[in-house]
Amino acid sequence: SYLAKCCFPYLTSTDPACKIEVPERLTVSHETLVRTGLADRCVSVPVREATDAEILLAHSEEYLEAVKKTPYMSLEDLMEFTRQYGDVYFHPNIYHCAKLAAGAALQLVDSVMTGKVRNGMALVRPPGHHSMRSAANGFCVFNNVAIAAQYAKQKYGVQRVLIVDWDIHHGQGVQYCFEDDPSVLYFSWHRYEHQKFWPHLRDSDYDIVGKEKGAGFNINVPWNKVGMENGDYLSVFCHVLLPVAYEFCPDLVLVCAGFDSAIGDPEGEMCATPDVFAHLTHLLMNLAGGKLCAVLEGGYNLTSLVQSVCQTVQTLLGDPVPRPASLKSPCISALESLQCVRSAHKAYWSCLKHAGNHNRAFSRAFKGPEAAGV
Ligand SMILES: [Zn+2]
Question: Any idea where the Histone deacetylase domain is (predicted)?
């Protein structure tokens, strides 16, 4: 029997706003979910616009007021407005779409928190994790997941929220929102290449662990090489995220579910296959009594995106996860990142207390006999 019900809010709007960033990302994902029968097994949750008060949970009044004016701007003014931010494009209808994207995430949180569904995925555009308190950035207008986390805390008295950002970019907007907040544990892995990859922030490195009371509650795993595979992803999950997550003991898990971390994506250039997301999802479903809300972020290779979305939804529905094909041990670069993160966090988490001391043995165990002694 399928205990897990997946809710599935989506933007059906054929709004021209959504043309600025390929709408096929949603339509093809949705069509495939329908064709494979997965959509039928999901509870569809109606979408609504996020209210001003909800948007203000993660954004400043000045910023919201500025975005509100965009539907009435001339094309010229819009371009001028856009130029003050990084890598984001404003269309007259993006304000409406962005309110729907945030609202969809909130509808999903409501459905999960009230027990209407066990877990779910919100397929939304524009994405959210790069947008900051007072700035749009990287295709993102409102920070859907950050708003959802604040909303869950405020409306349902949730005490601890885990945000897992498996998108291949650093969700710096989420980090900035919660860096001094110990009630939200933010985990992000991201293509970094020693700061050579966008958004080129020193703040994305492993030693940025959070501030003040929030120290230890921000976990950055920088990928310093492209081509990371399933084994690299799974080892970081198993040796960093999961031990800390169990110790943190969240009441709710939110996922910044970007799939540009999958093979074939022009942004990520990684080699993890879509079925790895079945495993990542499955591993997170044991936390927070299964209360998990995944919200779409990036993912620009349509084939890879669609397969990854299906793997995620299928797993949320309770289907058995596929056997991982030829799982290799992590590469040296991934091991280095992993060890750096564990060391940076050992003061904050008792599960990592011995991280530094065991690094040598740990890497030897992973690399196998030929690499022993490195
Ligand atoms: Zn991304």
Answer: 21-315
Q: What is the pLDDT of residues 52-111, one digit of tens each?
A: 999 999 999 999 999 999 999 988 888 888 888 878 878 888 899 999 999 999 999 999
Closest CA to 324 of 244, 255, 229: 229
Q: Look at residues 288, 213, 276 and name the one whose alpha carbon lies nearest to residue 245.
A: 288
CA of 365 to the centre of ligand 1 (A): 32
Give CA separation, 234 vs 20, 55, 121, 286, 339, in Å: 34, 34, 21, 16, 14
pTM: 0.91
Residue 265 CB burial class (10 angstroms; 0-12, 13-18, ≥19): buried
Determine if the peptide bond prior to 126 is cis (ω within 30°).
yes
Structure-token pair, residue 359: 């690094």
* Token pair listed for 81: 């407005």
How far apart (Å, rounded) are the C-alpha atoms in residues 309 and 106?
20
Structure tokens at 280: 């990542």
Cα(233)–Cα(240) distance, rounded to whole angstroms?
A: 11
Residues within 5 Å of ion ligand 1, judged at the Cβ atom: 167, 169, 258, 260, 298
CA of 354 to the centre of ligand 1 (A): 33
Mean pLDDT of the 172-191 span: 98
130 is catalytic: yes
Q: Which residues, listed in sequence order, are joined to residue 188 by a DSSP beta bridge?
A: 165, 220
- DSSP-derived letter for residue 38 is T
Computed over every residue of the chain, the mean pLDDT equals 90
Candidate CATH numbers 3.40.800.20, 3.40.50.200, 3.30.420.10, 2.60.20.10; the one for domain 2-372: 3.40.800.20
Out of 59, 129, 130, 169, the active site residue is 130
Question: Sign of the C-alpha dihedral, residues 310, 312, 315, 320?
Answer: positive
Quick one: how many helices (H) and strands (E) in the chain?
13, 8
How many angstroms does the Cα of residue 176 sit away from the middle of ligand 1?
17
The alpha carbon of 85 and the centre of ligand 1 are apart by a number of angstroms equal to 17
